[in-house]
């Protein structure tokens, strides 16, 4: 279940934004941006601890892309899950909204 938690939270964030603004794609972008940013920050800290001698100044621009700081599948699922789940939900919600608008 832990592998799906971020996707479920992202869908909840998306639903709140989607219901409030009727823009489900904006909700998807916000939720994905949050989780991508969160995981990138954690990768930065892992790189700094493992290879940067504890100093942020030693972190190169490519440090977050170093596969050595992404060793666990759950670290990948934490940002891939929202990226996969929210666009699918936005597509369905948008189709549902358009379908409801066509009916009298």
Can you give a write-up of this model?
This protein is an all-alpha fold and 104 residues long. It has one domain. It has 3 helices and no strands. It has helices at residues 2-21, 24-51, 73-102. The mean pLDDT is 91.
The end-to-end distance, rounded to whole angstroms, is 42 Å
Class inferred from helices and paired strands: mainly alpha
- Mean pLDDT metric: 91
Radius of gyration: 17 Å
Largest sheet: none
> Could you state the order of secondary-structure elements as H and E?
HHH
Identify low-pLDDT runs: none
How many H/I helical runs?
3
- Cα shape: elongated
How much of the residues is beta strand, in percent? under 5%
Residue share in helix: over 70%
Number of strands: 0
- Give the domain tally: 1
Task: Write a brief caption for the model.
The protein is mostly helical and 104 residues long. It has one domain (2-102).
